[in-house]
Amino acid sequence: MEENKATTEQTPTVLFVNKEKEPLFSKKNRKLLSDPMDDNNPITVQVLGICSALAITVQLKPAVVMSVSVMAVMAASNVIISLLRNLIPNRIRIIVQLVVVASMVILVDQVLRAFAYDVSKELSIFIGLIITNCIVMGRLEAFALGNGVWKSFLDGVGNAAGYGFILILVAFFRELLGSGKLFGYQVIPDALYEMGYVNNGLMLLSPMALITVGLIIWVQRYRNRTLIEKN
After folding, report:
1. Are 153 and 40 in contact (CB under 8 A)?
2. How buried is 183 (Cβ within 10 angstroms: 0-12 exposed, 13-18 middle, 19+ buried)?
3. Which end of the chain has fewer CB within 10 Å, C or N?
4. At residue 111, does pLDDT exceed 80?
5. 231: pLDDT confidence band, cut at 50, 70 and 90?
């Protein structure tokens, strides 16, 4: 009787998501999406993925494509590792994670080559370097290996969105101030140039990307004092 009672009291699960215990978009699950945008941003708080923030933010277009690519890779990889987490031997978990991420990156790269070849050429090796992106591997190791599919999916999307937001923000200022354009289209009017305005070519150099990220970090900590490290 007790076994039957226990069986009847079990709640249905779909892909490790318990419908009755916790809503899909509960407050806790929503934090997985919102925290990486501010309190736990991969670039400005965790200081991860800085290399791509310096290398591909000269223009908005490659920054947006890179952000979407990382989101696709992170979401898919987190889901796959979460599904396999109870089957992966501990000693080879890093190898399995690398194989999964590499497979997703190759798939994304082939899609870009098929539908956005010019951007794929512009991004060049940086798409392949998603495999070694600290953010991707860090979330697989720190979260996907210990949580269900839905939470892992949200965590992947949230961290990729936080990463992409900074990339796009840096690219916005660098392209606008460096060349007077956005997405390759002239934004600053010719009348301003006729008055003597000159594009700030310094913004197109890699050091300015680092300075821009530093200014974003400063503004973020000014708004959110809890992020200021105590001595």
Report:
1. no
2. exposed
3. C
4. yes
5. low
By C-alpha distance, which of 112, 124, 132, 38 is closest to 69?
A: 112
Encode 58-81: b = buried (16+ Cβ within 10 Å), e = exposed: bbbbbbbbbbebbbbbbbbbbbbb
pLDDT at 202 over 80: yes
CA distance 145 to 28: 18
Computed on alpha carbons and rounded to an integer, the radius of gyration of the chain in Å comes to: 21
Separation of alpha carbons 124 and 121, rounded Å: 5
Q: Is the pLDDT of residue 226 over 50?
A: yes
- Token pair 């194989």 is found at 99
pTM: 0.81
| Residue 105 CB neighbours (<10 A) | 23
Q: Domain ranges in the chain?
A: 41-190
Measured CA to CA, the distance from residue 219 to residue 210 in angstroms comes to 14
d(CA 192, CA 122): 30
Amino acid sitting at position 83: L
Q: What length does the chain have?
A: 231
> Tens of pLDDT along 63-84?
898 889 899 999 999 999 999 9
89: its two tokens = 């031997």
Higher pLDDT, 159 or 132: 159
Residue 78: per-residue pLDDT = 94
* The two structure tokens encoding residue 125: 């090796």
